[in-house]
Design goal:
single chain; alpha/beta; 6-stranded mixed beta sheet; 5-stranded mixed beta sheet
Length: 588
C-alpha cells in the first residue's frame, strides 16, 4: 500500500473513531424533569450509545455537540423519562390490535355506536366487529351501557362482540347466529341470558369469573400472521405515541408460550420492537400449571434478551400473574367476591417451590385481602424451608390488602404492582360493597412502609392501555366518571405518580438502577410532552400524549410539529382495520 493510501486509510479510521464516540442526540431548551428528586429540573440532556451522557444547562450540553449530533429543540416543553407500565398485556394485544375497535377515551355513547356502525360498513363478510375492553359507561355523557337493541340497530348484518370489564359480553343477533348459541349453550361459570322466547338475547354474564367472555372471544376470527406482525408494530407505535417506552407483560388467558410469542419474538430479533418488553409466563391449563412451568424452565430463563438492538429489549422475566387457576380471584364487581377452592394451596405450593428453587421471579394476581392472606401463608411456609433471599416477587392489584398483610409482604421482600382498575370500576365497587373511606389500593400506606410500588393499567381487556388515565387517577383520586373515591390525604403528588410509572415500575423487572430517571448512565428512554404535566389542569392529564418519544437514544415517535425527526410510518393492515380510521386511544 502506498504512503498516500496509508494516510487516507488512517484519516478514515480516525474519522470513524471520532464519530463512534460522538454524542448522538441532544435535547435543548427543555424543562427536563430528571426525576432524581422532586423539583430537579435542567435545561438539556445529551445521549450517546443508547444512554444518557449528561444533563445540565444548554451551554454545558451543547459543548458535546459534533457535526453528526442530532439536536431537538424542546422549545420550553417538559421532558420526562419514558413511561413504564408494570402490568400490561402488550404481547397479546399486539396480535389483536388491528382487528379491534377501541372505545378507550370515547366521551359519548352516541359517538361509540356511530363508530361501531361505520366500522361494520367497512368490515368484510366473515370478520367480526369487536370492542374488547378499555371502556365503561361512566366515561360516556349518557352514563349508561348500550342496549342490545342499539347494538343490533347499529350492526344488523355483521357479527359483533363487545367485552365490558370482567362482567358482561354483548353479542348482536348476527353474532349469536354465527356462534350458534342457543338455549342449550351452557358455561360452568357464566350465563347465556335467555329471553321470554327461550332464545339467547345476546347478553353474556360472568358468574363470577370471565371465562364465558374469554371463551366466546376466542371463537371470533384472528388476524393471519403477516397482519399480526403489522398489528404488533402498530400497537407498539401507539404506545410510543402515549409516551410508553417500557412495559412489563403479565401474560394472559389464551396467550400460550412459546406459540403466541412467535410474532413478537420475530420482531424483537429483527430489532423492530420499540417498547422494552419484559414478560412473565402465565399458566394456561387448570390443573396442569406445574407441568407448564417445568417445561418452560427447560426452554427459557429470566433476563434472556432476544432484542437485536436494545439492552433488556425483550426479556423473559419470571412466572405469573396466573400461577395456578385456582388462585385467581377476578375482580368482577358486578358479582360478589369469589372464594378460592380449598385445594388452592396444594396447587400453588409446588409451583412456587419450583420457581423459588430455580430463582425465577414471580408475580401473583390477587384482588382481595382474603385471597392475599392465603397466598401469603403459602409463600411464608416455603420461605422457612427455601428462603427467598431477595428473589423478586410481587402481588398484582391488591385493592383491599390490609396493613398487616403489607407488613408480611415487606418482611418477605415483596412489592405491589397497582393499576387503575378502580378508575374504571370504582362506582361498581361502591354499589356492591358500599362507600369506601380507605384508599384502594392503599398506595400511600405502601409508600409509607417503603414497599416497592409500580403503577400500570392492566390494559387491554378490562382497563384501557392508556397510561395517562392511570396517572390522572393517582393524582386526582377520581374515576372515569368523575367520582372521587379517595380521601384528600391519599391523593398522590404529580411527582409521586410519575415516579411510580417510571422507576417504580422498573423494580418489577429488576431495572430500577437502569431506567426511570434522566441521569448519566441511565437508559436513554425520553419523552417530550406538549404540555407541562407538573402544572397543567389536572383534568387534562388523562389526555396527554407525547410530542417526541425516544427509546435507546432513537426517536421512535414524533408528532406533526417534530415531523422531521419521525421514523417512516407503516401502512395499517388489513385495509379495513379500525386502527386505520380511528387510531387507538381516543384522546384527541
Amino acid at each position: 500500500m502506498k504512503l498516500t493510501q496509508l494516510a487516507y486509510a488512517a484519516a478514515i479510521a480516525c474519522a470513524f473513531t471520532a464519530n463512534a464516540h460522538a454524542t448522538d442526540l441532544i435535547i435543548t431548551n427543555g424543562k427536563v424533569a430528571t426525576m432524581t428528586k422532586e423539583g430537579a429540573y435542567v435545561q438539556a440532556l445529551a445521549i450517546k450509545d443508547g444512554k444518557i451522557e449528561a444533563v445540565g444547562s444548554n451551554a454545558q450540553i451543547l459543548k458535546l455537540k459534533s457535526s453528526s449530533t442530532q439536536v431537538i429543540d424542546a422549545a420550553g416543553k417538559t421532558v420526562i423519562p419514558g413511561l413504564n407500565d408494570s402490568h400490561l398485556h402488550v404481547i397479546r394485544q399486539g396480535l389483536n390490535y388491528n382487528a379491534e375497535l377501541r372505545w378507550d377515551g370515547v366521551t359519548s355513547l352516541k359517538k361509540a355506536l356511530q363508530m361501531l356502525k361505520e366500522q361494520a360498513a367497512r368490515t368484510p363478510d366473515g370478520a367480526w366487529v369487536k370492542v374488547v375492553g378499555g371502556w365503561n359507561e361512566f366515561q360516556f355523557e349518557e352514563k349508561r351501557l348500550p342496549t342490545l337493541d342499539e347494538i343490533n340497530e347499529a350492526v344488523p348484518d355483521k357479527p359483533v362482540f363487545l367485552l365490558y370489564l370482567y362482567g358482561l359480553g354483548f353479542l348482536n343477533k348476527k353474532g349469536i347466529e354465527t356462534l350458534r348459541y342457543n338455549a342449550d349453550t351452557k358455561y360452568k361459570d357464566g350465563v347465556v341470558e335467555l329471553g321470554a322466547d327461550g332464545k339467547p338475547t345476546g347478553k353474556l354474564i360472568a358468574k363470577p369469573n370471565a371465562m364465558i367472555l374469554y371463551t366466546t372471544l376466542a371463537k371470533t376470527n384472528v388476524l393471519p400472521r403477516e397482519q399480526q406482525l403489522n398489528s404488533t408494530l402498530q400497537y407498539y407505535t401507539e404506545l410510543n405515541r402515549l409516551g410508553l417506552t417500557s412495559a412489563i407483560d403479565a401474560g394472559g388467558g389464551g396467550q400460550a408460550y412459546p406459540d403466541d410469542y412467535a410474532v413478537s419474538l420475530e420482531l424483537a430479533k429483527n430489532g423492530k420492537l420499540t417498547v422494552r418488553t419484559s414478560y412473565y409466563l402465565f399458566a394456561q391449563k387448570p390443573g396442569k400449571e406445574l407441568e407448564d412451568y417445568q417445561r418452560w424452565l427447560s426452554i427459557t430463563k429470566p433476563d434472556k434478551n432476544d432484542h437485536l438492538f436494545y439492552a433488556n429489549g425483550y426479556n423473559t422475566e419470571g412466572g405469573g400473574e396466573n400461577l395456578v387457576w385456582s388462585a385467581a380471584d377476578f375482580e368482577n364487581f358486578l358479582e360478589p367476591r369469589p372464594d378460592m377452592p380449598a385445594h388452592m394451596e396444594s396447587e400453588l405450593e409446588p409451583v412456587l417451590r419450583l420457581l423459588i428453587k430455580n430463582r425465577w421471579p414471580f408475580r401473583i394476581h390477587a384482588t382481595y385481602d382474603e385471597s392475599i392472606d392465603r397466598d401469603l401463608a403459602v409463600i411464608e411456609k416455603i420461605n422457612k424451608e427455601l428462603p427467598l433471599n431477595g428473589l423478586r416477587w410481587f402481588f398484582d392489584h391488591a385493592e383491599t390488602i390490609s396493613d398487616k398483610q403489607l407488613m408480611r409482604v415487606k418482611a418477605l421482600g415483596g412489592g405491589i404492582a397497582v393499576q387503575d382498575r378502580m378508575y374504571f370500576q370504582g362506582e361498581l365497587y361502591w354499589k356492591q360493597y358500599g362507600e369506601q373511606t380507605r384508599q384502594m389500593p392503599p398506595i400511600k400506606k405502601m409508600l409509607e412502609m417503603k414497599i416497592p410500588v409500580g403503577l400500570g393499567t392492566d390494559g387491554t381487556r378490562v382497563s384501557s392501555y392508556g397510561p395517562w388515565p392511570s396517572i390522572y387517577w393517582a393524582v386526582s383520586g377520581k374515576t372515569a366518571g368523575g367520582l372521587k373515591i379517595w380521601q384528600d390525604q391519599d391523593v398522590l403528588s404529580r411527582y409521586q405518580a410519575l415516579k411510580l410509572m417510571t422507576s417504580g415500575s422498573a423494580w418489577m423487572s429488576g431495572e430500577e438502577k437502569l431506567k426511570g430517571t434522566l441521569a448519566k448512565g441511565q437508559y436513554a428512554d425520553v419523552v417530550i410532552l406538549p404540555q407541562d404535566y407538573f402544572t397543567m389542569d389536572v383534568e387534562k392529564i388523562k389526555n396527554l400524549e407525547a410530542s417526541v418519544t425516544i427509546v435507546n437514544g432513537k426517536v421512535v415517535y414524533a408528532a406533526p410539529e417534530y415531523q422531521q425527526f419521525a421514523p417512516e410510518g407503516l401502512r395499517v393492515e388489513p385495509d379495513w382495520s379500525p386502527v386505520k380510521y380511528y387510531g387507538g386511544y381516543q384522546n384527541r
